[in-house]
Specification:
Structural class: alpha+beta
Order of helices and strands: HEHE
Distance between the termini: 45 Å
Largest sheet: 2 strands, parallel
Low-confidence stretches: none
Length: about 70
């Protein structure tokens, strides 16, 4: 069991290291997610997810207030 856990952790770390070396030429410089009105669940979730993705990819971005699921 311990060996399996160490092997799994090593595989995940190696995969993350390889993903960092991907050529990002031509990628957009920003990332925006349409959410819903401020204060709602969709806005909180969408903004948090957009900020996380933008940070991990080295982009600017965030949530954009929209009319909600029907408009998106």
């Amino acid at each position: 069991m311990k060996f399996t856990a160490i092997l799994a952790a090593s595989t995940i770390l190696a995969g993350a290291a390889v993903a960092q070396d991907v050529d990002k030429t031509g990628w957009p410089s920003s990332f925006t997610v349409g959410t819903a009105s401020q204060g709602g669940t969709y806005f909180a979730y969408g903004s948090g997810w957009a900020n996380l993705v933008a940070k991990e990819l080295g982009l600017t971005g965030g949530g954009e207030v929209t009319g909600g699921p029907m408009q998106n």
